[in-house]
Input
Amino acid sequence: MQHTGEISQPAVMRRRILIGGDWVEAASGEAFPVENPAKRAIIATVPRGTAVDVELAVRSASDAFPAWSAVAPRERGRMLLQVADAMEARLEEVARLIALETGNALRTQARAEARISADIFRYFGGLGGELKGATIPLGDSVLSYTRREPLGVVGAIIPWNAPVLLAALKIAPALCAGNTMVLKTAEDAPLAVLLMAEICQQFLPAGVLNVLTGFGVECGAPLLNHPAIAKLSFTGSTAVGKIVMEAASQRIVPVSLELGGKSPSIVFPDANEDWVVEGIVAAMRFTRQSQSCTAGSRLFLHRSVFDSFLDKLTAKVSTLRIGDPLAEDTDVGTIINERQFNRVCGYIESGLAEPDAKLVAGGLPPTDGPLSEGYFVQPTIFAHTSNDWRLSREEIFGPVLVAIPWTDEADVIRMANDTHYGLAAYLWTHDIGKALRTAHQVQAGWVQINQGTGQSPGQSYGGYKQSGLGREFSLEAMLDSFTQLKNVTVNLTR
Ligand code: NAI
Ligand code: MG
Output
């Protein structure tokens, strides 16, 4: 496997963190390695941030806040639009770095992530003028109105699965609304986010955006617990989401949480068609190794079409090319790291040990040959599983799909909802009445009918139940997540 990137850095890149407009080392001087999961090779080192760096970054963000919040909103937006332009000019560079550090395939995943991330800056950059308040009609002797004010310094923590997109989804709306930010990148994928920060820093005043690299407990926890943080915005596992909420409860600061999922895909009998098969592959995010919180990882197939649909699906899945993330003909890349790789393999082993479940695609990864060089796991499907089995209940965060037969409509909705998660749902039928009835009954924040992808700025996005709290991706989300409402009332008789 070979990559022919434009990234021609020295063998191991050395990156710095952004504090107060300066690119610096961690106060301790320590660094940690970033691995290319396709080759199990170290490609960079980044500063190992700790509480000292958090302190410096929060101070910078606090110092920058008064002036930044006083910039007229549309002027702030104009700077974000400049970021969007500059990112678009460097899309390929951003995309290659995403592919290199995450193992996500360049053609199917990383380029799209870079493009959507630039678009997120474009979308929120245009929304400065929408930070409007209202007037309350209390009669002619009173003027009562509301203002949308920023909260202050936002502490943001992101995961590695779509690092640039998830960072953009926090930076763009928070800054547009007049907040400043300290963002901690994920330890497995800090590089492309640091590149995006470099692009942002060309247009933003010093200290408005500060970006740290470091581990969860060492660097993330001090950020969660810093007394000057006015808002916490987190994307990642439900387990850490609970820690974020606990930290917020100590100081009564608002939190936004985008957490895990175990989303259902429901195929009705009339949808036994090729385009649905392609939609299921897209919904399962097989080309991102299913490392997606929205993966449609529980496939409910109507019993009447169960076998014939699965035949088509396994045939389709077998055409996906798995290999070097940077190669143009690769569809599927690698799992992010060894820990996740072992975890996913553990789920496959557990599926293989389940007497009734039938492996119809994939399986345990090869132990020799080119794919054993990296953390490659083939798209894997277990058929005839039960909705109660471990593989059907836990977020695997890897390419392991469970196919569950159903016959009764009420029963499939009950099974779909029988989970503590509630992020996405995918419904497949030409019967629009049936589709909408189901869409309204399913407990999920983001429902797709007859499509597996299609997330665009403007659509509010977020979870029901333990999949999260608050929304991202839209104007309403920006107003709810990154502003606070002040009411001002004037007695006009004096
Ligand atoms: P994680 O939730 O541990 O990591 C996400 C971020 O939180 C990282 O930046 C990490 O440094 C930080 N973090 C971890 N512990 C922290 C703490 N005590 N205080 C403050 N920050 C902390 O996710 P991880 O370990 O990478 O993946 C484990 C599982 O989480 C996956 O298998 C998957 O099920 C789930 N996950 C879900 C994601 C989603 O988008 N819903 C994204 C990534 C992981
Ligand atoms: Mg890595």
